[in-house]
Write a structure and sequence with these properties.
With 269 residues, this protein is mainly α. It has helices at 2-16, 18-32, 41-61, 72-94, 96-99, 101-104, 114-139, 151-173, 179-192, 205-211, 215-228, 237-261.
């Protein structure tokens, strides 16, 4: 109960500082690309090239065919945009306390919004890529259906998962800088451990059940359901319950670690 009260207080503080959060996130995007000639173009070009390279490799190199009657390029793009956002937001959010160390010294500043600043700033670029995927889908004759409305739910779920994880990593990384390298390795494993570029139907049933324990699986398939109009999120109740129970546990764990370590941030950063 004590952790729940602390978590509720943290959520209230974020709500009270919501205008500051949005302002800082917008400025963070500008600052990230300041000093470069092409500015935000680089933030769009790099993930775009990642999508194109992976698509060419799997579509033509490994000759991946249609998945459940859906052209591979659409199936692939609707899944990888979720992963690109998650990996970028998680990486940046994990280093938020180190990057904004000058704000930690301010007694009245609510530093628990710093991971969210990074998450929201990455979300702006994510929305751009989401628009690109919709245009590509329409070019192939897959026009948005009512099921596209549930993308709001999956985006919110993704933000909550990343925030829960980043509360843990951003707090620990202040004292253990090597965690940054470990995160890079885990993201690489996560990329190939999630059915983004390969079809999970190729594995036996028992292996599929193990792979579904990865919470990112729920989000990747959710994006595909919304964009390609496959099914509603309430049609997969058990995996949805599992996702939110796990996210809730990670969030409470993150709140506990954050509140225990926060008093020592100013002496370490």
């Amino acid at each position: 109960m004590r952790r729940l009260k602390i978590a509720a207080q943290l959520c209230r503080e974020i709500y009270y500082d919501r205008h500051l959060l949005l302002d800082l996130s917008f400025k963070d995007v500008q600052r990230r690309f300041s000093g470069t000639y092409f500015g935000m173009v680089w933030g769009i070009l790099q993930p775009l090239m990642t999508i194109v390279v992976y698509w060419l490799v799997f579509q033509y190199g490994f000759r991946s065919g249609d998945v459940d009657g859906i052209p591979f390029v659409l199936w692939f793009m609707s899944g990888i945009i979720e992963w690109l956002y998650l990996s970028e937001a998680f990486s940046y959010a994990s280093n938020s306390f180190l990057e904004y160390n000058y704000l930690i010294q301010k007694v009245k500043f609510n530093i628990n919004i710093l991971p969210l600043v990074k998450i929201i700033s990455s979300f702006y670029i994510h929305l751009f890529f989401f628009g690109i995927v919709l245009l590509v889908c329409m070019a192939f004759g897959y026009f948005p259906s009512m099921m596209l409305l549930q993308i709001v739910y999956y985006m919110f779920a993704e933000i909550m998962l990343v925030y829960a994880l980043s509360l843990i990593t951003s707090s620990v990384i202040v004292f253990f800088r090597d965690l940054n390298q470990i995160i890079g390795i885990l993201l690489l494993i996560g990329m190939w451990g999630t059915p983004i570029a390969w079809n999970m139907a190729m594995f036996p049933y028992k292996v599929q059940q193990i792979l579904k324990c990865n919470p990112v699986y729920y989000l990747v398939e959710g994006y595909r359901d919304a964009i390609l109009g496959r099914q509603w999120f309430w049609e997969r109740p058990m995996i949805g319950i599992y996702f939110w129970l796990l996210t809730g546990f990670l969030f409470l764990t993150g709140v506990h670690i954050y509140t225990r370590l926060r008093p020592y941030f100013a002496d370490t950063v």
